[in-house]
Amino acid sequence: xxxxxxxxxxxxxxxxxxxxxxxxxxxxxxxxxxxxxxxxxxxxxxxxxxxxxxxxxxxxxxxxxxxxxxxxxxxxxxxxxxxxxxxxxxxxxxxxxxxxxxxxxxxxxxxxxxxxxxxxxxxxxxxxxxxxxxxxxxxxxxxxxxxxxxxxxxxxxxxxxxxxxxxxxxxxxxxxxxxxxxxxxxxxxxxxxxxxxxxxxxxxxxxxxxxxxxxxxxxxxxxxxxxxxxxxxxxxxxxxxxxxxxxxxxxxxxxxxxxxxxxxxxxxxxxxxxxxxxxxxxxxxxxxxxxxxxxxxxxxxxxxxxxxxxxxxxxxxxxxxxxxxxxxxxxxxxxxxxxxxxxxxxxxxxxxxxxxxxxxxxxxxxxxxxxxxxxxxxxxxxxxxxxxxxxxxxxxxxxxxxxxxxxxxxxxxxxxxxxxxxxxxxxxxxx
Length: 431
Ligand SMILES: *Cc1c(COP(=O)(O)O)cnc(C)c1O
Description:
14 strands; five-stranded parallel sheet; binds pyridoxal-5'-phosphate; alpha/beta
């Protein structure tokens, strides 16, 4: 399988090179040249297969010859080592819980898959690589955990000081070894700016091999399609058309769902649900894509003004907005709607939402006023305790933290304070 740059100026690359480069030299996102639907026989028998087998069938063509089959199966088994339960909230309304991984957010699957691919490529090439990421919280935690102890890989995470939750900070600053956290005096956009600058800095890229680990990277983006296969299999027994509501920021997750549909998974419809950063819902209304400056909200993992993966979504529909609208509806919600929905859902269904999942559910319920007799699944993308300050004050209870977090508060935070780009550069050049 070859990957083309969506800016069309760079040459095509194999999966391996697309992963190690992250982004094409012309700054375009990589996109698979072909998407061949799965054989009907496999699609008919999904419910008889183990999720590991389904995942292998789904992703194999995107890897091509870059990873031997046995190794790929191994990577999938190690990636998908926790469940994605489907929990009923109401008639035809379900939560697909994607937060049972090690860092309690859905980004674990992509991070674990990518880490193991990079580890394999390193084994055969033996050239060290540095993963550089800016994070508003969840990406950094998932990448730190996914890449921890992976040989030949150094991870450098930039996060905005005092702008992430305590758990998120502990998850990325207490591991040590090959994981370094840079604590930036600024907001997420400042971190992002510094990372972009480093990727273009000739002195840095001559000396070290840099790649990214956000959903721009195909190895983090594509495995997210496994959720849709898993959710579909769990819900297919209801015999109704299946809709997925996806709380979205950079739109990697939703875009992976569209790839699952291209592979033949019969998903009826997608809901693109956002907080006040509503570039995509506005586009679906007006036909004009006009990104705004990022607005800070309580669902901060979705605070993205200009979603990178939007261009991949357009590519999937050949830039035809009519086709796009047939497949995706957009909804956006304010912080106050989000908070009151967390409260309302707790009272009505005794279910504790996190602020991101709450937006997915809000969209689903709004959509189901128009459409009935269809199964609606919203993706619950983070465990509520990751955003305990917002959730607890809203519903007046103390949340139970999962056992795997018990030790984290005792571990010592280690970070390097950063106030400007030249300090980032100095750190990278001496490491
Ligand atoms: C990253 C994230 C999102 C947004 O996912 P995208 O793929 O960027 O659209 C939603 N919820 C949570 C909890 C996240 O961490």
